[in-house]
Specification:
Helices cover about 35% and strands about 20% of the residues. By secondary structure, the protein is an alpha/beta fold. The strands form two sheets. Strands 1-2-11-10-7-3-4-6 form an eight-stranded mixed beta sheet, with helices on both faces. It is globular and about 45 Å long. It starts with a strand and ends with a strand. The site of ligand LXAUTJHC has 13 residues, from strand 5.
């Protein structure tokens, strides 16, 4: 384990060990919340990296009926689209013991994320924040949630003093239009995890921490340099 400023890195030999460790950690957080407050709230990322973590977490024994799960971001595609983060969560996390959890989607069925923003905002506003845990991922371009380089609402999304809970996001590298929780909303959490794998992402994170990424300006920098919430990076090759 290594700690640098606000960031602690936990390294694992492989994806299975990483997924098991993070699932146990997050389950412990949810259990503590259920004991203390009778409910728990979790926000998770989509993409490919969290698949094994979801499969492990779904089998953890806890009072899932009192757990609400939402997404940190969503691709603006229908729930049955292969690119849908909601589809991933439904097929891997909302299974087994965790099938009793309540899922709060960001996608609303509106034609565009801009059209769906008000409803998505209402859904997030209705959650009993702070989150008990937020699980972020990261792309090879340094995006996290849907904070994409060149995103049309990137500055607003990263503004720590901003009041928007949810924003639409369009960016050259984003594939499809997106919707994302804002950084200050993601930081309203009792625990923040960044789940990443591969040498390329490890090197990118090292560059950000050393301040060597200024030319690329990776959006994940905003998460790693903020001082509100400690960041636990879970990494495997
Ligand atoms: O598009 C997205 O990508 C990131 C990273 O995904 P990965 O496939 O590299 O693990 C993910 O964290 C985000 O939720 C998702 O919308």
């Amino acid at each position: 384990m290594t700690t640098h400023l606000n960031v602690t890195t936990h390294s694992f030999t492989d994806g299975h060990a990483q997924a098991v460790a993070l699932a146990e950690r997050v389950a412990a957080r949810l259990r503590a919340a259920l004991i203390e407050r009778g409910r728990a709230v979790l926000a998770v990322s989509g993409g490919s990296t969290p698949k094994e973590f979801f499969a492990c977490l779904a089998r953890e024994a806890l009072d899932w009926a009192n757990v609400q799960i939402t997404l940190v971001d969503e691709r603006w595609v229908p729930d049955n689209d292969e690119r849908s983060n909601a589809k991933l969560v439904k097929s891997l996390l909302l299974q087994h013991a965790a099938s009793a959890a309540q899922f709060v989607p960001l996608y609303t069925g509106a034609p565009t994320p801009e059209d769906g923003l008000a409803i998505a905002n209402t859904r997030i506003d209705a959650l009993p924040l702070p989150f008990d845990a937020v699980i972020l991922g990261m792309g090879d371009d340094g995006h996290t949630a849907s904070f994409f380089p060149g995103g049309d609402h990137l500055a607003e999304a990263l503004d720590l003093d901003g009041h928007a809970r949810v924003l639409s996001m369009r960016a050259p590298g984003a594939g499809e239009p997106r919707i994302t929780l804002s950084l200050p909303t993601l930081l309203e959490t009792r625990a923040l995890y960044l789940l990443v794998s591969g040498e390329k992402k490890r090197d990118l994170l090292a560059d950000v921490r050393l301040g060597l990424d200024v030319a690329q300006n990776y959006p994940v920098r905003a998460v790693l340099t903020q001082q509100r919430v400690p960041v636990a990076v879970y990494w495997c090759p």
